[in-house]
């Protein structure tokens, strides 16, 4: 279904395809998708390069790709999430279905300006290996924002507007192997 001119997806449009494992609706003109997927076997959903400003999908996925839309907020997603190049203004507090735990979350090229502790410690699973937040508008990271991300290996905070950090921010990231803070406004790391 990719590279067409689809603009609206309704429940009835896809009901007969209940055994699908992968659904690619990328590169269309979809501006509305507001239904519950009833695909028991669907594991990969691609909605990238559309005109979505909001998304409400109640389904468990191994991967969902919604990059290059105009999404401003998210409520529920599961699996690996590719949410880059949207208009998100704050870090989504994503509720996770434990049957498929995401390990990679890509939020680069959005408009996020603050990383709140409650979103990362209560909304995201602790099994995340990669968290990409580069090229946002992040000014503030709450001191214990990353405390629940025990196995995080890679954190990209480059190209933001961070001017100062509390030393405690990265304290609990014991498995962190890559941290990118380049191209920020950093002048002090507070103890």
Question: What's the gist of this structure?
Answer:
With 191 residues, the chain is mainly beta. The chain has helices spanning 11-14, 117-122; strands at 8-9, 22-24, 32-33, 44-46, 63-65, 80-82, 104-106, 114-115, 130-132, 140-141, 154-156, 164-166, 178-180, 188-190.
Write structural notes for this entry.
This protein is mainly beta. Helices cover 5% and strands 20% of the residues. It is built from two helices and 14 strands. It has an eight-stranded parallel sheet, with no helix packed on it. The mean pLDDT is 83.
Features:
191 residues, mainly beta, 8-stranded parallel β-sheet, two-stranded parallel ribbon
Largest sheet: 8 strands, parallel
Backbone shape: elongated
Number of strands: 14
DSSP helical segment count: 2
> Strand order, biggest sheet?
2-4-5-6-7-9-11-13
Strand content: 15-25%
Q: How confident is the prediction overall: mean pLDDT?
A: 83
Outline the secondary-structure elements.
Blueprint: E1 8-9, H1 11-14, E2 22-24, E3 32-33, E4 44-46, E5 63-65, E6 80-82, E7 104-106, E8 114-115, H2 117-122, E9 130-132, E10 140-141, E11 154-156, E12 164-166, E13 178-180, E14 188-190
């Amino acid at each position: 279904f990719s590279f067409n001119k689809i603009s609206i997806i309704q429940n009835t449009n896809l009901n007969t395809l209940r055994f699908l494992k992968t659904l690619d609706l990328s590169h269309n003109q979809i501006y509305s998708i507001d239904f519950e997927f009833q695909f028991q076997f669907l594991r990969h959903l691609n909605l990238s390069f559309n005109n979505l400003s909001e998304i409400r999908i109640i389904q468990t996925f191994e991967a969902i790709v919604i990059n290059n839309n105009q999404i401003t907020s998210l409520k529920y997603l599961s699996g690996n999430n590719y949410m880059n190049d949207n208009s998100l203004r704050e870090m989504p507090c994503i509720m996770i279905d434990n049957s498929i735990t995401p390990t990679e979350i890509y939020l680069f090229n959005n408009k996020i300006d603050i990383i709140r502790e409650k979103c990362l410690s209560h909304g995201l699973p602790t099994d995340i290996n990669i968290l990409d937040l580069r090229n946002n508008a992040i000014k503030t990271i709450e001191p214990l924002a990353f405390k629940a991300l025990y196995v995080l290996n890679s954190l990209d905070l480059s190209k933001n507007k961070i001017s100062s950090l509390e030393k405690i921010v990265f304290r609990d990231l014991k498995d962190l192997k890559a941290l990118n803070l380049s191209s920020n406004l950093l002048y002090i790391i507070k103890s």
